[in-house]
Amino acid sequence: MSVLARAAPAWILCVLCALAVRPSGAAEPWDTSAYPPATQRKFQQAEKLFRDGDHAASLALYQELAQKHPELPPAQIGLAASASRLGRYAEAASGYEAAVRLLPDDPLLEGELADAYRGVKRYDDAEAWYLRALANSGDAPHRTRWHFGLGLIDSAAGRYPEAVGHYTDALAINPTLPIARHNMGVALLRMNRLEEADAAFVDALSANPENVRAVFSRGQIAARNGDRGLAAELYARAADLRPDEPTFHHAHAQMLLRLGDAGGADAALGRYRSTKAAQYRAEGREFMAQEQWVDALAHLNKAYETDPTDIDSLTDRAYSLLRSGESELARREYERVLAARPGAARAMFHLAVALYHLQRHDEAETRLLTVIADAPDMPESYRQLAWVRRAQGDLSGAEDAFTMGLARNSKWAPGYWWRGSVRRQLGAESDAEADFRRAIQLTPDAPFPRESLARLLLETGGDLAEARKHAASAVRKVPSPQHRVTLALIYDALGLSADAGAEIERAYSEAPSDERVAAARERIAARGRP
Amino acid sequence: MKIPSVPTRAVATACLLWTTLIAVRAPAWPTFTDVAAEAGISFLHENGAAGLRLFPESVGSGCVFFDYDRDGWLDLYLVNGGDFKGEGAPNRLYRNLGDGTFEDVTLLSGAGDTGFGVGACAGDYDGDGWEDLYVCNYAEDALYRNLGDGTFEDVRHSAMRPESRWSSSAAFLDADGDGDLDLCVVTYADYVETRDGCETRGMRVFCGPETFDSQTDTLFRNNGDGTFTDVSAEAGFRFGGRGLALVCADYDDDGDSDIFIANDMSQDFLYQNRGDGRFDEVAFLTGMALSEDGTMGNGMGADAADVDNDGKLDIFITNFQDQVNTLYHNDGDGFFTDVSYPSETAVASLPLLAWGCALADFDNDGFRDIFVANGHIHDNIEEFDDIGTYAQRKLLYRNLGDGRFEERGAESGRGMADARVSRGAAIGDYDNDGDYDIVVNNVGGSASLLRNDGGSAAGWLRVVLDPPTLAVGARVWVTPAGGTTLLYEGHTGGSYASHGDTRPLFGLGEASTAALRVEWPDGAASASEDARAGATVTLRHPTQAE
């Protein structure tokens, strides 16, 4: 399936181009010239995006066009072709269904629809549409593709003799189609017709000597024939051609074991483990990037189980556990990471975070001080140390932690902001104000120090005009209920009751159960009462 | 066009000869009828499903055929689930009345364990001649000692520190060769509910097993005084997997029991016994850890037997949908070869999700056939997969005797063809008519008792080994007159979470007599010449008085 799926876009493009370049005579159903220039431009833009390979963007545009002009085949075809390119075969099938309704008996579209059905494993429908495409296509050369598609369906269903028949038909039209020859070899191999399978793979290799799957399959045939030496040789060749493919290393290792080459087998097995783990780890990291920690864990578990020496997988697993809230398990895994990599500052830091979540503050502090000593340029260590100390009621210690970090990097804007917040809790208002101002100076666009400064000015009788400026800026950047409350209270202090009321109502609508919002709302309302 | 007459005649003659040979080699193929209701098996499995699709609800439970009252008729123990976070539904014990019906004796027997049950197996661990029961639960496992008076005593705390992690399958075996039965317990995933809650296309679905961490399995050494000690670490059980099934078999013919463990989305394990109860994990070294293409399978069930009558124990593993069930041929040189495709067992399994299984000669033609119970984990599979179905028919492969199998489940009676959501399965000749019947535990539904009709049309020979403790690991060779020698090795457990008939039943085909020989685990031998087809022969260990 995947082979054809990869090949399909070229064909789809042909269909798309064929339709797009037809003369735009008024009789043609896909004529867009009667539509407003904006619509025409969108079609051109969508086609360009498709050609440039930005299929997500072309899909979005074609979806918009198809919704607006469902009667236009290019919109439906473009939608389907883009979706197909993205592997979204269900959407592709819907698009092609609409297209074949608009352009019945077009074999190219029928074939595309069949491909899409095959993509979503609707094999009966796919088979029916392939057959229909074949019936409508006369002697067109692309018949080979539909025979090939039928072969893939039969292969997937285990109907290998029928699959061989279809591949043979495909090859009769296009004798140089190596993929059909290769797939025929696979079907023959499944049927245990080893000699014929080997011949098919040899043919496939004559067209492309680097057809690594054919090399591997020839190895399987040699193994079944008892020729272990040849099998090992072919597996080794496959592994050389595609060193990142674990399958080949696994097969090679198994054959070397049978040949009594324990050392070689051990090395091949090691390559299998590391390449397989790398595959699983890459899958896990895709989910990590989307912050889908449980899904990430599933793949990272497989990675680490495949290769228990793979500390990168273990580290990723530990991090996913930490982010998914399993602090105790994360702690244990980070201990193992550190046993393997004692100097890993990042792992040590995350271990400290896990300990902090587990309320093992003393151990967390010890670890953080170690990180700070070993890797003093990680500002998050100072911040975490501050939070550990604050959690124990040691606000001065928290202040010291930020001061340490700021001594290391005097341009650490968040450090000033956080230290200012701690200083406010300590009652050192003027020091806090200085910190907030320094943070704003360093990062003028950051809303949080501005909101903090605005609040400080409001609550300490400072300059309300300046406070209003900062608070309004914070709301513009991040219109959170907390920012709105501060602005509302400043309006209120300035006697701007209507503005205060409007702002606090916006905050209340977003966070009706927030205590600070509720209290401010009550206060503003009370002031408005006679 | 003129057709040459001689070749036509030759072809016709060859066809006739072939047909005749097939007819001679192929006794009538049996059919299977679900007689659970008429046999009085009213058991209903509960999985506690409440719409959230929490992972433990998906695994179902197993079943046990064993003769707890030693009356010569196989009784039936069915494991139940319930609410895995609360009260489990009681397991049920059915006594075989010998007339094709069963009586529910759960309350009387005291064996109705109420843990969230997954699996069970039977074995006479205390050597008193009465088969005891070990029950695998989601939480704490249970050990029921058979008191010999129709009742069982729950000795889980006095006899051992029971496995308290999620276990699935267990087997009694003499791991250290000291003459008593040790116990291997396979554990599944380390379930964490906060990780549960997977979705596909916006629908809640059961998570995959890899979502949860793997765990090591457990080996309990029998101390010889009615108690067990966990010796997993010293025995070499230090690899994490998500085990669902195990089968004990002396695959390397060195006289001790090795252990194969089928893991769900972990590499499978083959623990090779050093002979003293310490094991080496050799799955990679023997070619059994991963599928032919180097991926982890979802091992759900397993059995071991000699399917090609070459005197070596082959291994069969059931797998998930879109993976083939794997038949590993024992090459006899320490390696196994995946022969799933060459044996023609692979393709039929692709659309099905397989669990319990058995390698047994259902038509008594002298070749072991293959039974597979199927059923998806996703009750909403039809909503997001065009191929899978929740309820699925069973597979029954007829052994053609030449290394190939023919799948005939759909033509083997309604009991086999009807779609159910099956999990554990055990074989046993419950009606003592000389062919293997099958019991199947179905998730959230009634159990199936599949009576084999027609299997005993060919000759058969049953062997009872006494004492039962020494039957585990014993090897029985039967040579039908004029036929090939057949091998049976006794083991407990197997399939998925289940345990079947430990009385070997041999298909003799057309032969009316057979010679048989037993090699006991301690090396002693017993023999019987000229056993008659259709008979049950009891062979006692030389130390047992008549």
Question: What characteristics describe this protein?
Answer:
heterodimer, A: mainly alpha, Serine Threonine Protein Phosphatase 5, Tetratricopeptide repeat, 29 helices, flat, disordered N terminus, B: 546 residues, mainly beta, Methylamine Dehydrogenase, Chain H, 39 strands
* Beta-strand segment tally of chain A: 0
Which percent bin holds the helix content of chain B? under 10%
Structural class of chain B: mainly beta
Low-confidence stretches of chain B: 1-25
Query: So what's the overall shape of chain A?
Result: flat
Q: Please name the CATH architecture of the domain at 3-217 in chain A.
A: Alpha Horseshoe
**Structural class by helix and strand composition of chain A:** mainly alpha
Strand/helix succession of chain A: HHHHHHHHHHHHHHHHHHHHHHHHHHHHH
Question: How confident is the prediction overall: mean pLDDT of chain B?
Answer: 93
CATH overall fold name of chain B: Methylamine Dehydrogenase, Chain H
CATH superfamily of chain B: YVTN repeat-like/Quinoprotein amine dehydrogenase
Distance between the termini of chain A: 77 Å
Helix content of chain A: over 70%
Low-pLDDT residue intervals, each spanning 5 or more residues of chain A: 1-29
Largest interface: A-B, 37 and 34 residues
Radius of gyration of chain B: 22 Å
Task: Quickly name the level 1 CATH class of chain B.
Answer: Mainly Beta
Q: Helical element count of chain B? A: 7
Strand neighbour order, sheet with most strands of chain B: 1-32-31-30
Q: Please compute the radius of gyration of chain A using only Cα atoms.
A: 33 Å
